[in-house]
């Protein structure tokens, strides 16, 4: 994790943000994954306001952010040995772990569950804020419920406007997709949300993993539709991208394209972005491309899919949720 440079301005902003949190306000702040909308865990009315501001269903629990694993014992009733191994390898970082909650911790953050999801973010501003406040921060992604997660402070401002008391600007997020969520209260541990810490890496450390399909009741957030931009998303395999562009180009519908592979770009597109290279680069730019395409008033965004392995599993999870039922152009053609 990079240190904050000796920048007086950002340090004073962090102090101000901490004092707003102390007074019960809501602060949006950068993490390495996406921007979070934070409240002090111990302030029940501030936590309640997070649900209101986001329009978040009350059965969808929040992730609690801590500076380091030293703060764990005040929040959880037991730390299994497997947690210690994962924490040593992946914290601070984009891995959220679900533990049994201590009874003293407000059940509001956990939406009434007896468990609690916790992570330590790998971002100098998030860490400095947690250090300054000296208390855990409950923070979902800083978007309205069901919308793409914000990866810049401009996205947060666009999503939440004046309903958030303060926004800390940390520039664009490095990872761009939300953390991996792993439920350690299950045996074997259950992967509730894929992310940058991949299933393959987790298996190499802890062996067997349960998946969300085998544990539907334990993953409240995954029941709700997510990541829906205000345009239609259609997925396309790389080999069909050119044909699909030709098929969907239509002077009456503003078509955008998000892809990885270089190829001829037809005239008449309302939006076009191409990110050649790693899945990590594609992931980093996924939600920001959604926000850009909205600004370009795109009506249909054609998105090149990726292999469902490694980080690709997280990308496909978000893309499929954004696309909803009619995911692929073939489905679309059949439906017409
Ligand atoms: O990267 C991230 O995790 C970002 C940044 C801000 O840290 N946060 C984030 O929070 O994505 P949110 O609220 O958008 O997603 C939290 C996910 C939801 O799917 C929720 O259901 C799940 O974590 N979750 C939270 N507490 C849980 C619990 N006790 N048991 C099972 N799932 C839980
Ligand atoms: Mg979210």
Verbal overview:
There is one protein chain. The chain has 336 residues and is of the alpha/beta class. It has 2 domains: 8-206, Alpha-Beta Complex (DHBP synthase), CATH 3.90.870.10; 232-335, Rossmann fold (3-Layer(aba) Sandwich). 32% of the residues lie in helices and 16% in strands. It has 10 helices and 14 strands. The chain has helices at 8-22, 44-54, 81-90, 124-133, 153-160, 199-206, 241-248, 279-295, 312-323, 329-335, and strands spanning 27-29, 36-40, 63-65, 95-100, 115-119, 137-138, 166-167, 180-183, 190-193, 210-211, 232-236, 255-259, 271-274, 300-304. A 10-stranded mixed β-sheet has the order 7-1-2-6-3-5-4-8-9-10, sandwiched between helices. β8 (180-183) and β9 (190-193) form a beta hairpin. α1 (8-22) crosses α4 (124-133). Residues 331-336 have low confidence and may be disordered. The structure holds threonylcarbamoyladenylate and magnesium ion. Residues 140-141, 149 line the site of magnesium ion.
């Amino acid at each position: 994790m990079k240190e904050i440079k000796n920048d007086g301005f950002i340090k004073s902003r962090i102090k101000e943000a901490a004092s707003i949190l102390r007074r019960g306000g809501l602060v949006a702040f950068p993490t390495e994954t996406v921007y979070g909308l934070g409240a002090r865990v111990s302030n029940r009315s501030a936590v309640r306001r997070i649900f209101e501001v986001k329009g978040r269903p009350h059965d969808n629990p929040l992730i609690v952010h801590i500076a380091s694993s030293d703060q764990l014992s005040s929040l959880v009733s037991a730390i299994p040995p497997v947690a210690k191994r994962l924490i040593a390898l992946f914290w601070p970082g984009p891995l959220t772990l679900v533990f049994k909650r201590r009874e003293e911790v407000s059940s509001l953050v956990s939406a009434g569950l007896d468990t609690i999801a916790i992570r330590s973010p790998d971002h100098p501003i998030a860490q400095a804020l947690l250090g300054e406040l000296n208390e855990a921060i409950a923070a979902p992604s800083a978007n309205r419920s069901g919308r793409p997660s914000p990866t810049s402070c401009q996205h947060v401002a666009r999503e939440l406007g004046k309903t958030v008391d303060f926004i800390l600007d940390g520039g664009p997020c490095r990872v761009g997709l939300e953390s991996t969520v792993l439920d350690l209260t299950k045996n074997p541990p259950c992967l509730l949300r894929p992310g940058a810490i991949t299933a393959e890496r987790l298996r190499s450390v802890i062996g067997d993993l349960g998946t969300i399909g085998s544990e539907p009741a334990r993953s409240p957030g995954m029941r709700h539709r997510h990541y829906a931009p205000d345009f239609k998303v259609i997925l396309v395999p790389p080999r069909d991208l050119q044909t699909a562009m030709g098929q969907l180009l239509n002077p009456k519908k503003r078509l955008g394209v998000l892809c990885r592979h270089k190829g001829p770009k037809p005239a008449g597109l309302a939006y076009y972005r191409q990110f050649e290279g790693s899945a990590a680069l594609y992931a980093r730019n996924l939600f920001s491309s959604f926000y850009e395409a909205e600004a370009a008033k795109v009506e249909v965004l054609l998105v090149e899919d990726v292999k469902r392995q490694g980080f690709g599993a997280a990308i496909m999870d978000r893309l499929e949720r954004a696309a909803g039922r009619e995911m692929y152009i073939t489905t679309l053609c059949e439906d017409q």
